[in-house]
Design a protein that fits this description.
By secondary structure, this protein is mainly β. It has strands at 3-7, 10-13, 18-25, 34-39, 46-51, 57-59, 67-72, 77-82, 91-97, 100-101, 105-110. The strands form 2 sheets. Strands 2, 4, 5, 6, 9, 10 and 11 form a 7-stranded mixed β-sheet that branches. The protein is globular.
Length: 111
C-alpha cells in the first residue's frame, strides 16, 4: 500500500515562499513520475508540475520560473519549492505518484 503525506502548507504574504513536501511510503519513488496538482475553490484540479525518472520537468505557464519540483530518493520524498507567491496561487496542493494521491495541504497567499 502506497501512502503519500503532504506538509508545508500555510499562510504567507504575497511575494513570500513555501516549500511543500510529500513523503512516500510503501514504494520507492526513484523511477516514478511525480506530479503536483492544485485546486482552488470552485475550480478544477490542475497540474502544476511534474518530474519523471530522467529528471525532465514540466511546469504550468502560471508557475514557470517561480516553482521548482524536485525529489530526494534517499528520503523517499518529493518537494515543490514555491517562490514569489501570488494570491492566485491560493489552493489546496496535492502530490501524486502513479494512481496514488496525497491528502492535500492548504496554501493561502494574502495580498
Amino acid at each position: 500500500q502506497v501512502h503519500l503525506v503532504e506538509s508545508g502548507g500555510g499562510l504567507v504574504q504575497a511575494g513570500g515562499s513555501l516549500r511543500l513536501s510529500c513523503a512516500a511510503s510503501g514504494r520507492p519513488i526513484d523511477n516514478e513520475p511525480i506530479e503536483w496538482y492544485r485546486q482552488a475553490p470552485g475550480q478544477q484540479r490542475e497540474l502544476v508540475a511534474h518530474i519523471i525518472s530522467d529528471g525532465s520537468t514540466y511546469y504550468a505557464n502560471s508557475v514557470r520560473g517561480r516553482f521548482t519540483i524536485s525529489r530526494d530518493n534517499a528520503k523517499n520524498t518529493m518537494y515543490l519549492q514555491m517562490n514569489s507567491l501570488k494570491p492566485e496561487d491560493t489552493a489546496v496542493y496535492y502530490c501524486k505518484m502513479n494512481e496514488y494521491w496525497g491528502q492535500g495541504t492548504q496554501v493561502t497567499v494574502s495580498s
